Amino acid sequence: MRKLFKVACIFSLARIASPRKISRFLSPFQYNSCYFSQNSILANSLLSINTLPTIFRCSSPVLLHVSAQYASACQAFDKMSQRVAQYPQVSNISHVLELFRLVREKPSFINAKIVHALVIKLGALRHLPTVTSLLMIYSRGGSFSSSMALFSEVVDKDVIVSNAIMTACIENNLFEAVVNFFLEMVEVGNEFDSTSLVILLSALSNMKDLRRSMGVHALCVKAGTLSDSFLSNALLDVYAKCNDLYSSENVFREMEFKDTVSWNSIISGCLYNGHPMMSLLYFKQMVSISEQVDSVSLSCAIAASSCLEELTSGLAIHGLVIKLGYAERGHISVANSLISFYSQYGEVDAAKYVFEEMECKDVITWNSMINGLALNEEVIESFNHLHIMQFIESMKPEATTLVSIISLAADFMLLREGKAVHGYIIRRGMESSLSMMNSLLNMYLSGNNAKKAEHLLRTMPVKDLVTWNTMISGYSQNGCNREAQTLFKKLQGQHLSCSLPTLLGVLSSCDAPQFLQFGKSIHCWHVKLGFENNILAVNSLMYMYIHCGDLVASFELLGEISFTADVDSWNAVISGCTQNNHFGMALEAFNLMRQISRVNHDSITLVSAISACGYLQLVNEGKSIHGLALKTSSGKDIRVQNVLITMYARLADTMSASLVFNLCHDRNMCTWNCMISALAQNNKAKEALALFHSFEFEPDEISLATVLSICTQLGIIRHGKQIHGHVLRSGYFKNSVISSALVDMYSSCGRLDIALLVFEKSPEKSIAAWNSVIAAYGLHSNGRKAIEVFTELIESGMSPTKATFVNLLTACSHSGLVDQGCWYYDHMLTSFGVQPTTDHHVCIVDMLGRSGRLQEAYNFVEDMLSQPESGIWGALLSACNYHGDLKLGKKVADILFSLKPENVGYYVSLSNMYVATGSWKEAVELRDIVQNKKLAKPAAYSLIDVGLG
Predict the structure, then answer these.
(1) Same domain, 860 and 907
(2) Of residues 94 and 405, more confidently modeled
(3) pTM score > 0.90 for this model?
(4) Terminal Cα-to-Cα distance of the chain (whole angstroms)
């Protein structure tokens, strides 16, 4: 754990003999000369003093809550030169000034009023130093209005009292007022000094007003005040804050005398403008000329190393920190930067060491450590630090800390811990913080607790657009589509302007054909608000149209942006088609992308295209895309390799699937599950079970459900019981998928009693579990019990599915309950809302055929509205074979021979009917046809499990 610190100390003691030498160990970043080739706006901005008021009035007043730092302005005022003018003699004025000095240490409105009364009593209101000090005490005591009133009473205002009121404005975040005061000074002809300009630049820096800052710079050039280091440093800062780093660097290069503040300003300015490499380069230059670095320089350099993920540079700077004694002197900002640096680089043990060695910690220290732990997925320890922080009297968690920890609870679905933080917020009376309440909303919605989020929304005293966006998006993510759309309409009813996140959030609720009309109205809002050229908005619209079944609209949108479409645009269409079972359209879009687009595919594109090939049973196309994947880096993506295994499984090519699996070096849990499932789906249950025994991970619910289905195929209850034991030990018995798989396994192995026991003790009975019990009774020819379970299912409030009716009709068929089965089939759609499919038609034909009602079964097939599939005719042929109806069987067989001429099973069934009726000649002729077509019946086999049952 201390290895990194040993390296840092080596940098400090062994290699860094002087601060200049640290530059050797920083990365050799090259100065980007191209960056400085831009045209300077400043060159055309050297304006005369007469035009200055006009410049300042051109821009509309803006109050921006940006940085609260106004240190340069306040320090400039506090260090101003003393007045040399003569003032009226006031008795005991020295005592008043001493009292001012004491009050300034702990300013308050009460103390200011007491001092003010004393000044009036002594008749010292004409004494400008006294009035100036009193003005500042009022401001810093929280009564800016009193400062303004006092300033208005001053008759002969000089530059220092004017500077004082401008400083008071900055302290109270009234930045535009500073500009107005300065304009007033210029217009009435009062003098201003470099301190006035520093204060003015501090206000403009907070406002990020580049244009007026350039005017001040021109004024500084004309007045010849740039030799003042305070003023030059203020110009450095304002250009950096206004995102004009080029001008900031120009000012820095032209400075004759650069102090530590100058270097700190350019280093932090580069970092602020997103140029950490340049920030680190300036720090290197600063050290190389033996300029004294301080905590600001070191903190910025460490932050730059963190942004660049330069561990070597960070260690070198840490070594300099140790060498200069900042570690022992307890500079909190430097230690905080080190904690963030090591956390960002994944060295959380090093971050913990820095944290534990700190004697003094502030709120930023705790926030950095908590965020660092969260970043490295040490979630529980992150919450423990928050818990410890609560018991430190001077270190109560603030809004920033709580918002960070709430986001952590949302990301990791820690609803219990998030509720505890919510309780703490209520106890502290911090519900007025809008950012915290919005974070809580997001946490509850991420934890699928929409009801709690609704209650929180109702009780929030103030809501902003972020609140509405969070709630709308959360509803959509939780499947509450109607609620999301209703809330969007309510937002429009309150005449609040919606943003792009609002439209994207509500658009995701349109995921079914019934929401197409509402989705079209959102499309209109996109156009109305000017988002028709926003690529993210268009991608979301295409995805919506595909989900709602309007593929034409989606492809039209794609055609409109074909020249500007990115890979996400094509993926939206291709993956959307795949997810909605439009596999042919997905492949068409994929081919179109390769033909007309200059955009290269990525792993997501390949996953969707390969999956479509698997569903469509397109062997050649699937192998072609596999070859394309191997030619690019996407072929090494684990998601692509997993979907290749699944595709080959659907193509019944387990050899290719095994080859992909064996060549995969970074297998994850999904890879193993895909391969085991591939073997199980292709009747290679023994190989699948053997592969499960060599599983490299702790099995999850998917693995266990798959291996239970393998035990069901093999009829091996011994292995199934072992899996059941593991399920109980690992706590997966609460999983409804596992419960239904256990029911299937036990019923298939003849232990209906245990299957029913598993179902009864299941804490959560899903529709899959109910279906398994109905199928279990059907397998054991107990149709009446299956009907009873179906009735219980309906009474429990759950809705039956297509699989439910397949199992129910199968149970009726095996038990001879023909009339009951026909009744349920007739009422599937009208009473239960389930549309009959081919599987249900097969069940009805099988049920009628088993009971000998062959002509009725034939009439049922003939009366079907759609073209009957081969499986339906196959069920009727089996029934004809069972009952020896050769006439009807021959008619059905002729239909099947035209539909599936390669299926040898149909020939065998008809041949058996010929033999049963003594028509040997026809039987021999049929067998000759089979031999001539080189059709072969798959070899059958039986399994015996030798072991304890």
Answers:
(1) yes
(2) 405
(3) no
(4) 52
